[in-house]
Amino acid sequence: MGRGPGDNHEDQVLRKNTMTWLPSFLHGGTSSLVSTLTTFPIYKTVFRQQLHSTVVSQAIGQLRKEGFLKLYRGVVPPLLMKTLNGTLLFGIHDTFLHCLSSITNPCGIIPLSALPAVAGLGTGMVEALVFTPFERVQNVLQNGGNDRSLPTLRSVLARLGAERLGSGYYRAFIPILARNTLGSCIYFGLKDPVSAALREMGLPPMASSFLSGMVISSMAINLPLYPLSVLVVNMQAGVSEAAGVRGSWKALWEGQLKRSVPLLYRGGSLVIIRSCISWGITTAIYDRRSAH
């Protein structure tokens, strides 16, 4: 079949979008690196709350007693993970979005407004496959109970490498997959509509993008999916044999949490603060770059 004028226009749009991917990778990675270094102490405080069910003051007291040098123990895996995440996230999503558009637009299978959310599901799957090992190493390093037996990053890598994938680097893969696919679907599905609504209220583009990232990540993603993050931390922090997802959740809910929702959400306020900063910056930078 011959190519019409519309095909040439689509090729031009695709080439233009491809040229914007590289700057988006660079700025996404840079913003993620800066936000990770800035908010890591907050994350570590949340981690201790999730792991030991302590209040904020107790978690901060633990970190103070350990000293400043140990405050950033475990920062390398999240730094790599978040920088790679910020670099790849939007590029992967755009790739899926272009593929879905070319497949579904002629047939009208999926509404155009739903395509970003559907592409977000695929993005979340890739995230889970790539970044679960980073999260696993990070959680082992940040668990103070592993300091003596696994004092260095190299010792952690050696220990996890000796295990089967399901109990080593990919422990808790199922809840991570659920959390990432749902989170990416919500984020990409709501990001542009929320930002557009804020711009209609008179906010500048950068401010609307920043607030869009803050609101979506904190209220629409982190609060509903926070229990999955708590489960992941408790499944991944140890290196001994662990139960499966159902057994781990039962032990956590009935044992450590004593069937208490407030205990389950302990540390949630700090998650919101950290997420607001991280995703507000990332969203604002990406939207600014993609507008040029």
Automatic annotation (TrEMBL):
GO terms for cellular component: mitochondrial inner membrane. Keywords: Membrane, Mitochondrion, Mitochondrion inner membrane, Repeat, Transmembrane, Transmembrane helix, Transport. The keyword Repeat applies. It is a multi-pass membrane protein. InterPro entries: MCP_dom_sf, MCP_transmembrane, Mito_NAD+_Carrier. The keyword RNA-binding does not apply. One of its GO terms (molecular function) is NAD transmembrane transporter activity. It holds the Pfam family Mito_carr. Solcar repeats lie at residues 19-99, 111-197. It is found in: Mitochondrion inner membrane. Belongs to the mitochondrial carrier (TC 2.A.29) family. This is Solute carrier family 25 member 53. It comes from Hucho hucho.
